[in-house]
Please model this.
Amino acid sequence: MTVDGDSCLTDEMQNPIIAALDVPNAEMAWDLVQQLIPVVGAFKIGSELFTSAGPSIVRSIRQAGGSVFLDLKFHDIPNTVAKAVAAAVELDVQMLTVHTSGGTAMLQAAEDSVHATARRLGKTSPLILGVTVLTSLDGNELGAVGFESNVGRQVERLAALAVSAGLRGLVCSPLEVVALRSIVPASVQLVTPGIRAEGDQANDQKRTLSPQEALAAGANWLVIGRPIYAASNPRAAAEKILASLPLSSR
Ligand code: C5P
Model:
């Protein structure tokens, strides 16, 4: 995967699959990476694996030629987020997440930091993805923390805020991808989890789309966890999903 800083060009048309490495330790992650590296576009490292395995798992994947989506959902004062983002650029990740509810100043600090650090290091700016409303929150819970209790409206409000602050990408649920695609510029990259092919178990995902449906709805990247890492043959599962995608027609 390549992400070109300002024009935000990506080669997701070749392989939009981001395999979520939702496993507890470096050994299990590395085993998956070795199987999957030729057949996925990137690997997502979240809080569990990063807390357990640390930055060395990111370095190992980069050395092996894989792309990394660091999903740590930064949310703090602008100065702290800017420094965390700079550290992620130094680590050479290709995508990372921040919470859009951190506000405009925090989002702008993140974007400024990603570009300034990438320029200093002579590399391409990673894509910062804004997380809007966690899919685990319903209207009641949103209202209880003092937010707009209509989930759809809150998602659109935070997405608009993120785009006006300069973010070039958003994480969105399958429920939101069509609505967001219609209100954000075409250059904004949409990354969608909750992907299940026909016959897959939904697990705890309440609303899913197939890989083909998500791309047709306007997603640029598909985050896929259990259908790949929990399969008896993860490589074969990823190959099957990749072969099912109408990439040449996109
Ligand atoms: O196993 P599964 O395909 O459901 O994994 C989806 C991945 O996407 C997990 O890493 C999960 O944390 C992440 N995710 C999600 N829903 C969101 C945001 C992220 O499932 N709204």
The radius of gyration is 17 Å. Residues 104-121 form the longest helix (18 residues). Confidence is low (pLDDT under 50) at residues 4-12.
